[in-house]
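Support case: user asked for a sample of complex input and structure output to validate their parser. Sending the pair below.
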Amino acid sequence: MNEIILSTIILGLMGIVFGAGLAVASKIFAVEENELAVKVRALLPGANCGACGYPGCDNLAAAIVDGTARVFDCPVSNEAVVSQIAEILGVQVKNTVREVARVLCSGNCEVSSNKFLYDGIKDCSAVTQIFGGFKSCYYGCLGFGNCQKACPFGAINLDKGIAIVDENKCKACGLCVKACPKMLITMVPVNKRYLVFCKSKDKGATTKKYCTVGCIGCTRCVKACAYNAITMEGPLSKIDPCLCTNCGECEKVCPTHSIVKISEK
Amino acid sequence: MFEQIATSFISAILIENFVLVRFLGICPFLGVSKSLSTATGMGGAVVFVMALSSAITWLTQYYILEPLGIEFLQTLTFILVIAALVQLVELILKKTSRVLYNSLGVYLPLITTNCAILAVCIINIQKGFDFINAVLYGTFAGMGFTLAIVLFAGIRERMELFSDIPENLRGFPISLIAASLVSLAFFGFQGLVK
């Protein structure tokens, strides 16, 4: 009995002493938080998505104040927030264009064919490991929504077996880009409305067999573009968003409609 | 005296390496070994905490627990003492040395309740070390941990970059296999000191 009482008293005492000691120490060794960091932190979205490369918004805020990160390093914050942060720190930012993620495949279930029936785990990475996926086209979107699961902002929807980004909700964090096993998603300035929605590196004839909206490498768009914005990457044409002027000539000549204008919502 | 320290040094680092032979502190060993820089930070923090807690728990054992005859509370008391100590150290570091805090700070809370730390304190008592030897053993054990984690981080970095790993083994599976191979290699040190 004595032992129980003794050990309770000793442990209790130790607990009290340590607790009191730590409380005193935390007062003595208190460090004032950097006021600027607190202000910057309040402006950041607070989603702790990690897209900036720091573990969370607190760390990015501290890094921005330290000068190790730039004011626009949060890919989620919009221009207004960036300029507010810049104002707090007394620096200037030049205007930047907002980017959005685009899924470069429009081969939905109505226009593309499958090579086998898949009845396994509903996960793009899992199905990719089986003969590169169930679609005839090795490069196409599989539509199980790994990108949708990765998106912290609910900006990706699945429609007829392909993923589509809602540009109003997209915050350009880039997490979907990493999540796609087919590497179909790229970041593009939001004001560029024309893109080649195909990543197939198959020859034109093969692509045509698999999918009616795939790029067949006919090079008509390259010739039609007056600004040299379109180049061929093997059998696939690519529009350089820096040179594109949204004139729309390429869409008119594209025989398979793999170049489409992205409609504004 | 010197011979004893040298023996303790070799046995704590190579023969009885905390991670690779005793299998203690596996969690940070796998969790924080993705890059060399974080691994060295973690190692530094472990050396620091192991040495400090060896000292403080030795004092607790021989000046509080034994005189009162309540040695059976060893584990509980040691955890309490170590946790409080690390908290205190973190507070002091944050205030006094920003550089040291930035390199060790994030890892300190991670290792407060690490089994490797508790183990080193209990082994100190079991082996009947005096105060100086206890602190030295704690330091050496921490160095052994650092050696293991830094070696392993190097291996993982190289694996990420240069190895053609089968898709199903990428990431943690191959790390576990690599860790077991490193551990096997360390078993080769058995019997180095009689």
